[in-house]
């Protein structure tokens, strides 16, 4: 038995009012198309055909990014309906040699493998099996018309339904399993004499009834499609909650799931605590016992065991075990905090390695720098890394003590255990163990305040 899926992803999605194809819109960190492909992945189908049309190149690239076995494409240049879309795939040979076919839309991000498995199990021997669901307000959906015995006779689209049919609350999810030969045969004779002037895929159902048509009812919250941005947001809430439920069951504490945003694909180990306002995005992993938030955005970052990040933005960084970040810091790509290192409050870092136990506690910018283990960087220190043409590196040796408000004009090296005086602009290398001070001698001007007061008390014309 060779099995294929055909994912319909050629439409524009008019109700999104977007320049981007509907299936490319993202929800909970993945495009809708990607969510659908991920639901198909565990079924290990022999072939997955994505029908592309609107913004074909971008949709194709997004599908390819999923890295799925058996992925192929079919082109539908003009969108003449769901039946026409499948016919394009057939005419382009996409279903050659396949025995059974799952057809589904690209806009069902809530889909899970389970109802698809049930659909495939139930479909053996039938020409068509429809995944249906029940809704209170069926407006817009195709209705399943059953006879007195409960046998599905046909699907009628909302636009073509009469008042009696419109009252039916069992609707078509647009997810089906077909016997490939039966489907291909019926696609050749689809009429367009309907309200929308389209080739409806749903029109293959009625003529297939003599060869066996069934339906499997699935939960609406899994198979319902997304047609506008209101439904997209609703789907996002469901998907995020699924991700968080999995994490909580695997040993992660989520203090307030309604205010925690973890994208699919992020990995979080046991005994991590996620405080409200935490966003974990992209290729991020968080090791055991770390605490993130309140209010942190962490993207494409590895966080080590027991590290703490609060009220901060961290992107493309490596945060070592027991390291601490924030509150109120911004760590940009290429930042690496080694074990126990600290980026305290109001610290900006970029392309910088902060050695084991080294500390940058307050109000500093550290860019293009290597800070040695155990070094301490005084408040308001700045690596002056840019001369207007190129970036230069700052190296601070192990155990060095950089005084507050030091400007480290790169390229520069501060030796091991060396010191800089507060307020210095350091432009030449400092040897190991030395002190570098750059500031004028302090002067004391006695009685200054009193003389100033006396001068200001005279009328303006007498002021000297
Ligand atoms: C379709 C079903 C309807 C079902 C509903 C569930 C038909 C005729 N109707 O209606 O019974 O209740 O889904 O949401 O099938 N597409 C193409 N090429 C086209 C047209 C559509 O690739 O020419 C793709 C779209 O990109 C989309 C999917 O097919 O991913 C569904 O199309 P859409 O227009 O949303 O169908 P509905 O009107 O919602
Ligand atoms: Ca100064």
Characterization of the model:
The protein has 10 helices and 39 strands. Strands 13, 14, 16, 17, 19, 20, 22, 23, 25, 26, 28, 30, 33 and 36 form a 14-stranded parallel sheet that branches. Bound molecules: uridine-diphosphate-N-acetylglucosamine and calcium ion. Uridine-diphosphate-N-acetylglucosamine is lined by residues 8-11, 51, 76, 79-82, 84-85, 105-107, 141-142, 155, 157, 171-174, 200-202, 225. Calcium ion binds at residues 423, 425, 439.
List the helices and strands and how they pair.
Elements: E1 3-9, E2 26-27, E3 30-31, H1 32-40, E4 47-52, H2 56-64, E5 71-75, H3 82-91, E6 100-105, H4 113-122, E7 128-134, E8 143-146, E9 152-156, H5 163-166, E10 170-179, H6 180-187, H7 205-208, E11 213-217, H8 220-223, H9 229-249, E12 253-254, E13 260-262, E14 267-268, E15 273-274, E16 278-281, E17 285-286, E18 291-292, E19 296-299, E20 302-303, E21 308-309, E22 312-315, E23 318-319, E24 324-325, E25 330-331, E26 336-337, E27 342-345, E28 348-354, E29 359-362, E30 365-371, E31 376-377, E32 382-384, E33 394-396, E34 401-402, E35 407-409, E36 412-414, E37 419-420, E38 425-426, E39 435-436, H10 448-457
Parallel strand pairs: 1-4, 1-6, 4-5, 7-11, 12-15, 13-16, 14-17, 15-18, 16-19, 17-20, 18-21, 19-22, 20-23, 21-24, 22-25, 23-26, 24-27, 25-28, 26-28, 27-29, 28-30, 30-33, 31-34, 32-35, 33-36, 34-37, 35-38, 37-39
Antiparallel strand pairs: 2-3, 6-10, 7-10, 8-9
The structure holds uridine-diphosphate-N-acetylglucosamine and calcium ion.
